[in-house]
Amino acid sequence: MNLLLDTHVLIWWFEGSPKLSKRAPSVLGSPSNAIFISAVVGWELAIKVQVGKFHTPSLVQDLDGIIMANSLHYVKDHVSFLQKIKTHLKPEANILIVEYDTDTPVPTWVPYPLSFSSLTTLFTHAGYTSFQKLGERPSIYGGGNIYAALVI
Q1: Are residues 151 and 85 in the same domain?
Q2: What is the mean pLDDT of the chain?
Q3: Which of 106, 100, 102, 83 shows the shortest CA–CA distance to 146?
Q4: pTM, rounded to two decimals
Q5: Which end of the chain is more exposed for a tag (fewer CB within 10 A), N or C?
Q6: Position 95 confidence tier, pLDDT thresholds 50, 70, 90
Q7: Helix, strand or coil for residue 3?
Q8: How far apart are alpha carbons 33 and 50 in whole angstroms?
């Protein structure tokens, strides 16, 4: 079974919280189930760590993959960010990315864009070797396209 966890369920699972149902820990811990979290969970965990509400971020490790949909263009330092998330992924992890196919910023909305070409270069330097553009379509917000890519 594929499970997409929100931030609270992930924290409660790590902490063994009684807020989870009695069945939840066995379902979440089963090797036959795949656990997924979105990039937003990473941001929320970072905020919780900064304000002192979460103290075990190292438990988020050995992830099978990560989905970054319309999120990477808010990260100023793509190289450092990729190095950080790579430490939490299994070597064979998949990364699914949805981004605008441009390198030209749009203030406020797309401050640090990453075209597919730039994404390929970034991930090649990080040691990844497989890139597949899954699809592309016009953005409803302007003259450019948005793409989906799988990085392995």
Answers
A1: yes
A2: 87
A3: 100
A4: 0.67
A5: N
A6: very high
A7: strand
A8: 31
